[in-house]
């Protein structure tokens, strides 16, 4: 699954290439990529033709591009294997491209999706609290959020992210901390990889009850979350299966910095004990059995 760093890599690439250029034509090769757009393929193309993208905004792993029709944006769900590619118009056709848009700057925005869990749709925007609806440092005026994304909480890289508010909610949760970190309505953008990495850095076990972490420990954990996400963004995300790529089709390389995720059986980079994997919520949790023990008392 693409997580925040992979989505940010795509968002930034789009912000650098497709903004303020007119969409001259749209070719749909497989209308299943528009399954979430209520009006269907022809409605989508009719609305988008002649329009411009004004910004590329992200909250967690959700990306949207407001268009120059007041109150509307194109929402891009990457799903399991969705990719946004920006190519020159004479670039060879790529097999898994489901839809492409020709822009008047000579570039083509291609939506590629092998497994078709991703989608594009035009959605209505609504106002949000704060000076920005999500992460879009190039365009500070994007203050509205699509209805389909509005239930998603702000992520730790969002300028309006409020740690005190999140901490307060965590102190009422008895479930394991990893469960809370993955709750996109509490804090978005942290998936399995980055949760395991942040917990390893903070020396916290994934099943440590959220309400047993002190303010100090939660601050420390979130400092690691922010740091891990920022490092992964700087490296273009983590790629294991060639599914996640930047808009030029290149993979990220954060995988070489992993300390816990996918490191089962390798020595912990801090203490040398072997990293373990435990089944957890239909996936795995990777942790060091020595550095990350469940503590009965409050974690200071
Ligand atoms: Zn260790």
Overview features:
alpha+beta; N-terminal domain of MutM-like DNA repair proteins; binds zinc ion; 2 domains; Helicase, Ruva Protein, domain 3; 300 residues
Provide a descriptive summary of the structure in words:
It is a single chain. With 300 residues, the chain is an alpha+beta fold. The protein has two domains: 4-149, N-terminal domain of MutM-like DNA repair proteins, CATH 3.20.190.10; 163-287, Helicase, Ruva Protein, domain 3, CATH 1.10.8. It is built from six helices and eleven strands. The strands form three sheets. A five-stranded antiparallel sheet has the order 2-3-4-8-9, covered by helices on one side. It has a four-stranded antiparallel sheet with strand order 1-6-7-5, with helices on one face. The longest helix is centred in the last third of the chain and has 20 residues, at 215-234. It starts with a helix and ends in a 13-residue tail after the last strand. It binds zinc ion (ZN).
Helix content: 10-25%
In the CATH hierarchy, what is the class of the largest domain? Alpha Beta
CA radius of gyration is 20 Å
Summed over residues and divided by their number, the pLDDT gives a mean of 93
Task: Write a short abstract of this structure.
This protein is of the alpha+beta class. It contains six helices and eleven strands.
């Amino acid at each position: 699954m693409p997580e925040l760093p992979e989505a940010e890599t795509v968002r930034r690439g789009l912000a650098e290439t497709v903004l303020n250029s007119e969409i001259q034509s749209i070719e749909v090769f497989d209308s299943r990529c528009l399954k979430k757009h209520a009006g269907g393929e022809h409605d989508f193309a009719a609305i988008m033709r002649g329009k411009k993208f004004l910004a590329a905004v992200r909250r967690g792993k959700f990306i949207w591009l407001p268009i120059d029709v007041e109150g509307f944006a194109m929402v891009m769900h990457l799903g399991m294997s969705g990719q946004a590619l920006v190519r020159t118009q004479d670039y060879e056709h790529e097999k898994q491209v489901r839809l492409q848009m020709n822009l008047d700057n000579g570039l083509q925005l291609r939506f590629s999706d092998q497994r078709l869990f991703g989608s594009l749709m035009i959605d209505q925007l609504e106002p949000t609290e704060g000076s920005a609806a999500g992460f879009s440092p190039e365009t500070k005026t994007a203050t509205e959020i699509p209805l389909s994304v509005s239930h998603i909480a702000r992520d730790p890289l969002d300028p309006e992210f409020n740690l005190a508010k999140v901490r307060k909610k965590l102190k009422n949760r008895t479930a394991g901390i990893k469960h809370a970190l993955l709750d996109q309505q509490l804090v978005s953008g942290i998936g399995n990889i980055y949760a395991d990495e942040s917990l390893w850095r903070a020396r916290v076990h994934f099943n440590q009850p959220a309400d047993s972490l002190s303010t100090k420990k939660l601050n420390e954990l979130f400092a690691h979350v922010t740091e891990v996400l920022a490092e992964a963004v700087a490296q273009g995300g983590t790629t294991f299966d060639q599914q996640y790529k930047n808009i030029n089709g290149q993979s990220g390389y954060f995988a070489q910095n992993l300390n816990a995720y996918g490191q089962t059986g390798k020595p912990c980079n801090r203490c040398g004990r072997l990293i373990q994997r435990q089944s957890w919520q239909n996936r795995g949790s990777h942790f060091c059995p020595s550095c990350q023990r469940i503590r009965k008392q409050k974690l200071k």
